[in-house]
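Journal club side-thread
Mid-discussion, someone asked how the predicted structure for our own chain would compare to the paper's figures. Pasting it here so we can look after the session.
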Amino acid sequence: MTRRSDATVDRALAGHLRAARQAAGLTMIAMADHLGVSYQQVQKYEAGTDRASAGTLLKWAAATGMDLPRLQADLMADDPRPPLTLTRAPSGFIQLALRATPEARRIALQVLKLGART
């Protein structure tokens, strides 16, 4: 199995971000407002010239309905590194989880993992 370079993964991610935004019918300006960044920053994420943080990816997924487990599979199909543990969830749930105690976050993650197996 060959290892994909970080640059290859970044370019692939950029394409997925753009496709998800367009499929959701969002303009770059609307996405920028949702993320709290400039539309130029959205352009950089979609061009693959700037890397999006985990928090930005979660916000992007919440705005577009992007399926993070599928995205991970698409990006890492040829990569032997361990998978990410991001799970798609409704944005309200994500906001609640970010404010929760570590124990509550652990329990919520277990519930999400159980739901993903069904």
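Post-session note: DSSP finds seven helices and no strands in the chain.
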